[in-house]
Amino acid sequence: xxxxxxxxxxxxxCAMIGSRVxxxxxxxxxPAHPVLVxxxxxxxxxxxxxxxxxxxxxxxGRLRISMLKPGKHTLRVALDGRSYGEGQITLVAGKSLxxxxxxxxxxxxxxxxxxxxxxxxxxxxxxxSYQEHNGKEPF
Length: 139
Known about the structure:
Helix content is 37%, strand content 33%. The chain is α+β, with helices and mostly antiparallel strands. The strands form two sheets. Strands 3-2-5-6 form a four-stranded antiparallel β-sheet, with no helix packed on it. The chain has a three-stranded mixed β-sheet with strand order 4-1-7, with no helix packed on it.
């Protein structure tokens, strides 16, 4: 009777040691995704990777993308529906890549529109002034 008990005890001991070894052996972590950071001036720039819109930079001009696979990708940026070129980027697992872009801003476009309106308004004032003084249309 002693032999079978020793055999059973040995088998149990081996099974417990094996499970301890398995529990202590760390499984390798999957490689971390790469991170793409786009910084833009002005903010509100649409960011496309491989022709897919992945987001818009914040009003401060920052967008962080961490769901891409490592490898080569095409990065394109657009503002208000107008594309401003594209380029190739290479992302590496566990690494961060920052791209900074400066586009013609809305501020410049707003300034041009305000100047055009101001000139139109000035022309209207001139026409009214001429009409008041001369009693007829200037043109």
